[in-house]
């Protein structure tokens, strides 16, 4: 039977405490030695040899105590502790044996001299050994960290090459196939379908091919967003939103759109940021059951961030859907697909945020905050300083 106390004694996690305790014990021995020598009136306590031994022992004991604290707070895993202590014990034994051999071959004044010499050898040997053990442990851990970083870099390079390959397949093969399917389905609907049912079947094929193209395009954008380091630049948000609103009306037909977009508002992002607002605007119409979809876009430039609110008059988002709205979904039945996951990924890429600030039977409002570019910050500051106090 193994007692719980035994498990605690041999636990590597407790080794730093034992090292600190060993330093405390050496301190007690040193102080007790001095007190006893003074109490017995031993003259050796005032000799130069004893004082040199004390002066060299005190830093070594302090080093052992510091070594215990360092082991406990360093990045070394507990599995490295026994080896560091092994170096300390080895240094203690070797240094003590060497000095005992010197004591045996050299004449000593008294047993007091022998005891002090042996104590000095124990302290110096343990301190130097622990120092070597800590330095070795840190060197080994740094080497392993560098090797892991190298392996991780190689793995990331392989993944990036694989993602580039997938991106090429999606762009040149799958997307082209979806376009061909859409084209032939449109021909069937216009020229070969003779009944309403046949036309309905053709429309289903067209809708599914368009949905496939949208998903493929989103996946391609996701792959691009993981390609290399993020290189942010100044993006004209005012013009971008104006273009996306124009595309929305062109794609979905009659849409009641209200905009409040100040001119010359810029953010720190890249060309993929258009996908953020393209997806949010498309969702505002695609999932809208109103007779005439209504969408509003409002931009509020601030000194540090630019806030964009996109509101619709749709049916709102259920609580169960809201919990996982921006997460990846495995089921085909998700009402928002990969689009909102892509939105969250891209906004995070720009160190911004996206949230649902309001939802209900009267509609939903999304808010996107992106870091303002230097131009927008200057404009906002100038506007704030030129506006009259309220």
Please write the string of helix (H) and strand (E) elements.
HHHHHHEHEEHEEHHEEH
Distance between the termini: 80 Å
How would you characterize the largest beta sheet? 5 strands, mixed
Number of domains: 2
Helix percent reads: 55-70%
SSE class: alpha+beta
Number of strands: 7
- The percentage of residues in β strands lies in 5-15%
GO molecular function: kinase activity
Protein name: histidine kinase
EC number: 2.7.13.3
Enzyme class: transferase
Q: What does this 3D model show about the protein?
A:
This protein is of the alpha+beta class and 390 residues long. It has two domains: 1-228, no CATH class; 233-386, Heat Shock Protein 90 (2-Layer Sandwich), CATH 3.30.565.10. It contains eleven helices and seven strands. It has helices at 4-9, 15-39, 48-73, 81-105, 111-192, 196-225, 237-252, 273-286, 319-323, 339-349, 374-386; strands at residues 233-236, 256-260, 266-269, 294-301, 305-312, 353-360, 363-371. The strands form two sheets. It has a five-stranded mixed sheet with strand order 2-4-5-7-6. A hairpin with a 3-residue loop joins strand 4 and strand 5 (305-312). The protein is elongated, with a radius of gyration of 37 Å. The model is unreliable at 1-9, 331-336 and 380-390 (pLDDT under 50).
């Amino acid at each position: 039977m193994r007692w719980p106390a035994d498990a605690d004694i041999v636990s590597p996690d407790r080794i730093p405490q034992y090292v600190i305790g060993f330093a405390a014990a050496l301190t007690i021995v040193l102080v007790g030695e001095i007190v006893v020598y003074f109490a017995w009136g031993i003259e050796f306590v005032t000799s130069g040899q004893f004082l040199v031994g004390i002066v060299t022992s005190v830093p070594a004991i302090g080093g052992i105590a510091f070594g215990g604290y360092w082991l406990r707070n360093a990045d070394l895993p507990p599995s490295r502790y026994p080896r560091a202590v092994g170096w300390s014990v080895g240094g203690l034994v070797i240094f003590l044996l060497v000095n005992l051999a010197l004591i045996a071959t050299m004449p000593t004044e008294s047993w007091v001299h022998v005891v002090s010499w042996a104590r000095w050898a124990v302290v110096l040997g343990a301190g130097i050994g622990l120092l070597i053990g800590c330095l070795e442990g840190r060197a080994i851990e740094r080497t392993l960290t560098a090797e892991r970083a190298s392996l991780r870099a190689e793995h990331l390079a392989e993944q990036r090459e694989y993602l580039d390959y997938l991106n090429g397949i999606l762009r040149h093969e799958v997307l082209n196939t979806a376009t061909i399917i859409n084209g032939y389905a449109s021909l069937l609907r216009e020229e070969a379908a003779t009944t309403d049912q046949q036309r309905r079947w053709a429309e289903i094929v067209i809708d599914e091919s368009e949905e496939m193209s949208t998903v493929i395009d989103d996946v391609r954008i996701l792959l691009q967003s993981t390609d290399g380091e993020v290189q942010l630049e100044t993006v004209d948000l005012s013009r971008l939103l104006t273009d996306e609103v124009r595309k929305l009306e062109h794609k979905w037909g009659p849409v009641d759109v209200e905009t409040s977009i100040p001119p010359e508002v810029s953010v720190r992002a890249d060309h993929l940021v258009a996908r953020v607002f393209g997806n949010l605007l498309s969702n505002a119409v695609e999932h809208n059951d109103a007779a005439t979809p209504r969408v509003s876009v409002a931009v509020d430039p601030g000194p540090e961030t630019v806030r964009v609110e996109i509101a619709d008059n749709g049916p709102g988002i259920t609580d169960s859907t809201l919990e996982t709205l921006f997460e990846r979904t495995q089921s085909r039945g998700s009402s928002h697909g990969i689009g909102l996951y892509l939105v969250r990924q891209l906004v995070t890429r720009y160190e911004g945020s996206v949230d649902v600030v309001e939802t209900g039977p009267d509609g939903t409002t999304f808010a996107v905050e992106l870091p303002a570019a230097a131009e927008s910050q200057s404009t906002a500051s100038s506007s704030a300083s030129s506006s009259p106090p309220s």
